[in-house]
């Protein structure tokens, strides 16, 4: 006789609910999700309003802006909340579907579609779908073509095709940045429908270099000569969605996390009691530093999109709230050019550092203002060491190959000796000694960039326009070094410098008591002999 089971098997509905709850809890705590679901069930517009970004008056960078802000941009952002709600939460957004547990599972299902762990290509496809829906509600031009999938849940599983014009890519990137801004610069701010205060003015970052990078990667800008003077325009050659996806996955993978992060932040704010949190932070969002530092807010965001570690959050914050000038360790226009000046500012800093180098190629003419400038950035995790050989460090963006010739930093030794084959003095990255991928000379006046064939450490690809196979020699305009280790690392560097100053002061001091009198010193005897060697001197016995 077999014993009957004392517990009945769960129903398919209960099994699905448990699966959806388990999947959602990996992205956000279930109590927060339940509170958000309860508040979103009050009215039909509660969830779309909660998913909308805070009200703000965005303006394009530059004066006058090189890329004007499209007139439909604010309408596009206003339609962002309804687009997300209809794409993922359509069956749980209305009050009719939100009675008891009847709408809880669809709510979790929609949350998991955009926030659960998924391949980066699918996350980007979902983001492009949201962008297309927001453009449709705003009446904005959009070259994305949606191909619906099969099945009940095919609304977000179909392919995304079409072509994006350069201006559309810029608008898409600005939308992604505004989604990040809503979480970092506007804590606790309600959605666009709930805040009746005056919208805050927000300066958008410059994304021209990102649009140009996508266009070059897709072949829309075929030759290097076309890079100089290139401008974003709606009538420029477009980039196919498949090519744009490949560029994002290889160059800016952080864009794939934009939608899931945004939805999590808005759901978290919806679950919290935001009655007393209606202020929008305006820290550094209206100050344009594009003409002040090489590390602009646009470059900081581009670096954040390329990283997949904790430093990405630091650069993302810098792109939203502004650059913290206290992190600037060295700037050649302020501290002076040269390796010794650089070393006096960077020595003892054992933490992540960003080096930005601005130069112009001599092939572009002697006119520095001709627009043929370029910037190279190097990110290191452990600071610099003075050695006469390459050394290994952790490269933050993991662009590594077979060799480990990451950094070369060689100063003149204090005690100079004869060297048959003296090592070059300067900074270098990649390659080998004598054939460095990037070499910055001792005076910080010249930089040499070589073809990637000499380098087996970093990934292949051109670093500057018009590079070719021959080494490119360029004149250095400015060099910046930013310390990214935080206050603790800066305090350790200050303690190191104070200790070195004490040692230097001790080495300069001479205790005369340790020497005998001058009359009995051998130095005086030798000087007297040199002055008159024929003088008869009595020998002391």
At a glance:
This protein is an alpha+beta fold and 541 residues long. The protein contains 17 helices and 13 strands.
Name the poorly predicted regions. 1-6, 91-102, 150-156, 187-196, 274-280, 364-370, 395-400
Largest sheet: 8 strands, antiparallel
The total of beta strands comes to 13
Percent range of helical residues: 25-40%
Q: Given the helix and strand composition, which structural class is it?
A: alpha+beta
The average pLDDT value, as a whole number, equals 80
Beginning-to-end CA distance, first to last residue: 124 Å
The H/E string reads: HHHEHHHHEEHEHEHHHHEHHEEEEEEEHH
Q: For the CA atoms, what is the radius of gyration? A: 31 Å
Shape descriptor: elongated
User: What's the tally of helices?
Assistant: 17
Strand content bin: 5-15%
Oligomer: single chain
Helices, strands, pairings?
Blueprint: H1 12-25, H2 30-40, H3 46-50, E1 56-59, H4 73-78, H5 80-88, H6 104-115, H7 120-138, E2 144-146, E3 160-164, H8 166-184, E4 200-203, H9 208-217, E5 239-240, H10 241-251, H11 258-271, H12 297-306, H13 311-321, E6 328-331, H14 332-335, H15 339-346, E7 353-361, E8 373-380, E9 407-410, E10 426-432, E11 435-441, E12 446-449, E13 472-483, H16 486-508, H17 522-531
Parallel strand pairs: 1-4
Antiparallel strand pairs: 2-3, 3-5, 6-13, 7-8, 7-13, 9-10, 10-11, 11-12, 12-13
Helix pairs in contact: 1-6, 2-11, 5-7, 8-9, 8-11, 8-13, 9-10, 12-13
């Amino acid at each position: 006789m077999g014993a009957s089971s004392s517990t009945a098997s769960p129903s398919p509905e209960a099994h699905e609910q448990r699966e959806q709850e388990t999947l959602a809890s990996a992205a956000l705590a279930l109590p927060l999700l339940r509170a958000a679901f309860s508040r979103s069930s009050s009215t039909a517009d509660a969830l779309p309003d909660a998913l909308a970004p805070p009200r703000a008056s965005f303006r394009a960078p530059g004066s006058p802006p090189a890329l004007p802000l499209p007139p439909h941009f604010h309408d596009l952002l206003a339609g962002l909340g309804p687009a997300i709600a209809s794409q993922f939460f359509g069956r749980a957004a209305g009050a009719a579907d939100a009675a008891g547990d009847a709408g809880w599972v669809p709510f979790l299902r929609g949350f998991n579609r955009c926030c659960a762990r998924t391949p980066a290509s699918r996350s980007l496809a979902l983001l492009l779908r949201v962008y297309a829906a927001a453009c449709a509600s705003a009446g904005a031009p959009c070259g994305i073509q949606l191909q619906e999938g099969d099945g009940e849940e095919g609304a977000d599983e179909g392919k995304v095709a079409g072509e994006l014009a350069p201006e559309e890519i810029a608008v898409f990137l600005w939308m992604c940045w505004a989604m990040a801004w809503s979480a970092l610069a506007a804590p606790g701010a309600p959605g666009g429908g709930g805040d009746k205060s005056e919208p805050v003015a927000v300066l958008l970052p410059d994304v021209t270099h990102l649009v140009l990078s996508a266009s070059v990667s897709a072949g829309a800008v075929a030759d290097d000569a076309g890079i100089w003077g290139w401008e974003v325009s709606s009538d420029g050659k477009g980039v196919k969605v498949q090519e744009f996806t490949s560029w994002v996955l290889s160059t800016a993978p952080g864009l794939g996390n934009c939608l899931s992060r945004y939805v999590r932040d808005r759901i978290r704010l919806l679950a919290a009691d935001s009655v007393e949190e209606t202020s929008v932070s305006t820290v550094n969002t209206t100050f344009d530093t594009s003409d002040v530092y090489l590390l602009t807010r646009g470059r900081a965001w581009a670096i954040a999109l390329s990283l997949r570690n904790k430093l990405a959050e630091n650069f993302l914050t810098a792109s939203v709230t502004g650059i913290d000038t206290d992190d600037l360790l060295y700037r050649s226009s302020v501290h002076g050019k040269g390796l010794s000046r650089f070393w006096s500012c960077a020595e003892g800093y054992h933490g992540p550092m960003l080096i930005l180098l601005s130069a112009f190629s001599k092939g572009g003419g002697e006119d520095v203002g001709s627009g043929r400038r370029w910037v190279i950035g190097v990110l290191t995790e452990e600071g610099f060491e003075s050695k006469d050989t390459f050394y290994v460090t952790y490269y933050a963006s993991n662009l590594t190959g077979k060799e480990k010739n990451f950094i070369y930093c060689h100063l003149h030794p204090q005690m100079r000796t004869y060297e048959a084959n003296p090592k070059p003095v300067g900074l270098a990255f990649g390659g080998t000694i004598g054939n460095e991928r990037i070499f910055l000379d001792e005076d910080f006046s010249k930089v040499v960039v070589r073809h990637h064939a000499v380098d087996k450490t970093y990934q292949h690809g051109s670093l500057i326009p018009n590079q070719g196979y021959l080494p490119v020699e360029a004149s250095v305009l400015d060099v910046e070094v930013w310390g990214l280790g935080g206050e603790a690392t800066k305090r350790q560097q200050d303690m190191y410098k104070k200790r070195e100053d004490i040692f230097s002061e001790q080495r300069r001091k001479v205790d005369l008591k340790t020497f005998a009198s001058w009359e009995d010193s051998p130095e005086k005897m030798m000087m007297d002999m040199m002055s008159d060697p024929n003088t008869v001197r009595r020998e002391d016995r």
